[in-house]
Design a protein that fits this description.
By secondary structure, this protein is α+β, with helices and mostly antiparallel strands. The chain contains five helices and nine strands, in the order ααβαβββαββββαβ. It has a single domain, classed as GXWXG domain (Lipocalin).
Length: 162
């Protein structure tokens, strides 16, 4: 399977944004998103460690306080949207917060079709793009603007293959 990854210039932009201290402007992430290649479902299979990008979005703050670990994609029909650490440090799927689990679909977002996680219990979609073979940029989208938008901006996050 051929894996398309971001160009050196785009990967460098990503690294710069990621290492920045303080808040990242969501508009910069919107521009970066447009430059990254789309992802196929089979490229997502596995466990991924998550990091919220600090844009000031409330979802990022919530994930940090709940000991968010990341996501796991076992198959197109079996995705774990919210993996957390318990009090012993073990990782588990938080079905309560996620209102169930999820599945993977190829969905159009901003004019491109890319691998997307569709939550079972709430109108939320996590779209993914490839930075490199072990790093994804994700953006949370959905029907409920009060849930997915904060000050008019989407929540961005990073997933790294565990």
């Amino acid at each position: 399977m051929s894996i398309s990854v971001g160009t050196g210039r785009v990967v460098e932009k990503f690294a710069t944004l990621r290492s920045r201290s303080g808040e990242v402007d969501p508009a910069e992430l919107d521009r970066l998103w447009r430059e990254l290649p789309t992802v196929r479902i089979e490229q997502l299979i596995g466990r991924w460690r998550g990091t919220a990008l600090d844009t000031g979005h409330r979802v990022g703050r919530q994930l940090r306080t709940m000991n968010w670990y990341g996501k796991e994609f076992r198959s197109p029909a079996d995705a774990k949207p919210i993996l957390r650490h318990d009090e012993n440090g073990d990782v588990y799927s938080d079905r309560e917060t996620a209102q169930g689990e999820a599945s993977l679909w190829m969905v159009e977002f901003r004019g491109e079709v890319t691998a997307t996680m569709v939550y079972d219990g709430m109108p939320v979609f996590d779209h993914f793009k490839m930075v490199d073979e072990n790093t994804l940029l994700g953006v949370m989208n959905g029907k409920d603007a009060d849930l997915v938008l904060d000050r008019g901006h989407y929540f961005y996050f990073i997933l790294e293959r565990a």
